[in-house]
Specification:
With about 240 residues, the chain is an alpha/beta fold. A seven-stranded mixed β-sheet has the order 3-2-1-4-5-7-6, with helices on both faces. Strand 4, helix 8 and strand 5 form a beta-alpha-beta unit. Helix 3 runs parallel beside helix 4.
């Protein structure tokens, strides 16, 4: 696999080694536990953003979960974005339709307003006539942002997603996973992450995850639900909702 694929987590056989994926079921449980808080989304079109959609399989499953949660009569639309254009093309071919669109986007470049051309997320929002997404999903993607762009780069992405989300769903990788991934890069001769040694957001036993959770809360959100049953990769889904004004 080319260096930049490993560096950014663009695994083209991701769903071959993650053939069992309990995240849709975990998401369904999260939504069931906090249905009262999310009732305000009833009876209008729901717009969702999936950051780091890979080949689109999970995006498609999440769309089905949300559709089932709110009922078949409710309009639900999603855009999935990924840094890897080949994966985006695969997602479009496999799952793309009028309710599920896919586009290439480098979320880190967008967050620091350094993207070339027009931002595909902004284009979707303009077409849909929305200022925010009802749901933004980041499944196991923030580690790569963090390793490639440091604490400040991760904070910029969190600022971006928090400003555009009413409900934010995160799946975070542990500090152990960070270290394992850095060792893999070194072992395979793929180079170093220049920010790794200087990261201040780090630590085992949930300390890294706590930095991220508290930052999201500081941006006007509250933690609604954290799935206690960890998935097959020892990760849990964390659901935040924007504070009422």
């Amino acid at each position: 696999m080319p260096k930049d694929k490993i560096q950014h987590g663009s695994y083209h056989q991701y769903y071959e080694f993650r053939s069992r994926d309990s995240r849709p079921q975990c998401l369904e449980n999260c939504l069931r536990q906090c249905s009262n808080q999310l009732a305000r989304l009833n009876n209008r079109t729901i717009h969702m953003l999936d950051i780091g959609c890979n080949s689109g399989k999970l995006s498609n499953s999440v769309l089905a979960v949300i559709q089932s949660t709110y009922g078949e009569s409710q309009l639900v639309h999603m855009i999935g974005v990924d840094i890897d254009m080949d994966l985006v093309a695969q997602a479009r071919s496999s799952y793309g339709n009028e309710n599920l669109q896919f586009a290439q986007a480098d979320i880190s470049a967008i967050a620091i307003e350094d993207s070339e051309g027009k931002d595909s997320i902004a284009m979707y929002m303009e077409r849909a006539g929305i200022r925010q997404f009802d749901y933004v999903f980041c499944f196991s993607v923030l580690m790569y942002v963090h390793l490639n762009h440091g604490d400040q780069g991760l904070q910029a992405v969190l600022d971006y997603v928090c400003s555009r989300a009413n409900v934010l769903v995160l799946e975070l990788q542990s500090w152990k996973k960070y270290r394992d991934h850095v060792r893999r890069m070194r072992r395979e001769g793929e180079g170093e992450y220049p920010h790794f040694e200087s990261l201040e957001w780090k630590g085992n036993y949930g300390r890294l995850e706590e930095h991220i959770k508290q930052y999201v809360i500081s941006r006007g959100f509250h933690l609604v639900f954290e799935e206690g049953n960890r998935n097959e990769f020892n990760r849990s889904l964390i659901l935040f909702s924007r504070n009422s004004t």
